[in-house]
Specification:
There is one protein chain. The protein contains three helices and two strands, in the order αβαβα. By secondary structure, the chain is α+β, with helices and mostly antiparallel strands. It starts with 17 loop residues before the first helix and ends in a 7-residue tail after the last helix. About 7% of the residues have low confidence.
């Protein structure tokens, strides 16, 4: 992925600097985990998160209230012991669902 951070300080005329490219490379190299609470749109979220992970596929946990027998409008997904367990397993690098 080619990216550019533009400096607004005026020193480099808006071009990508070596420092900005190095910082971007460091940012992309940091392992990131994303958690999404949604009943739809997995592909859209995955595509958006790809911009933050460079060439590596994003590590995403998708939680759907529906899959835990909840109604999303209530906002009580984390009242589910199974949903809490899925988040903990994801954060610990294990499979989210057993």
């Amino acid at each position: 992925m080619t990216s550019c951070i533009i400096s607004f300080s005026g020193r480099n005329g808006g071009s990508c600097s070596a420092i900005a490219q190095a910082l971007l490379a460091q940012y992309e190299a940091v392992r990131k985990k994303f958690t999404v609470v949604s009943n739809t749109g997995q592909d859209n979220f995955t595509a958006a998160f790809q911009y933050h992970t460079g060439d590596a596929p994003p590590d995403v946990l998708f939680l759907s209230a529906r899959s835990f027998g909840r109604v999303s409008i209530r906002g009580d997904l984390m009242d589910s012991p199974q949903a809490r367990e899925a988040v903990l397993r994801f954060l610990n690098g294990q499979e989210a669902f057993s």
